[in-house]
């Protein structure tokens, strides 16, 4: 028994039993979560935990390795990347050594449902059978399947989710909970605007449950773009070649679905001044910043306005009640340091936009539909 305990201390588990069960004889609802996490780990790796080539690659050791190295290659290409991120995050949290660090089974089920929604959205968003890039935004490839929550739960018959406990988790309290959303986006990214429209719908549908703080952060798809601007349609033709027409048709359809008419008329170019103005707007209130992002997107994507034109920027600022914008923009250094710092802090580790961080922990990317945001709000406040 001494040897078993020493092994558990080093490895973090022995088969499906958590540390507290072997070391202290303690069994809690979080012990079931641990066992379920081990099953999830086997689903990811398509092998039993105690197989010689897999033993010791889990627990804390797994967090230090690249998780992708241990994904079963037969299913790795079948699941959308965003779904994988949620799924693997759940797995790692379930097998934490300390019971208090593990989620409840109700939380696990909610997050698995979120992963499934991301997978379903990947199927809907798919254009071709392979990856297609649009302004650094990945259109996730079509999948042949996804995770069935019910089937996963049935893998471990001794795990049960208390309906009353799950109901409490889902319903929460009558008091409004705070949802803070940090959004990294670029003002010339069409998917960023689509994501904003869907986010706004989700907020409108749930503002009786939550108080929202939306903070917009800069990202530059093309930081070297000229300030004087270049023809938008010609730019996309040069960048994407023969795929540009297909992409324009696709974006037109996507915009139509959110009640907008997509236009490639006008110029595109450097977005730094627009990000400086968005930063300035935040100093006068998050609502004004949010409204300014809307005005800039409407003008650029549907009216042929140039995102680097100070006249357009000032007109947009005036519409949402921002004061002092003209004096601010006149000085090219105003807000520049702050924007550059935010580019490092919020955009340094991401490769595409839009990118959302909800309550500091829960991450989404792409032009997600309202229902994905709604589920994410639930997960983030549980």
Automatic annotation (TrEMBL):
Residues 1-117 form the Protein kinase domain. GO terms for molecular function: ATP binding; oxidoreductase activity; protein kinase activity. PROSITE patterns: PROTEIN_KINASE_DOM (PS50011). This is Protein kinase domain-containing protein. It comes from Phaseolus coccineus. The lineage of its organism: Eukaryota, Viridiplantae, Streptophyta, Embryophyta, Tracheophyta.
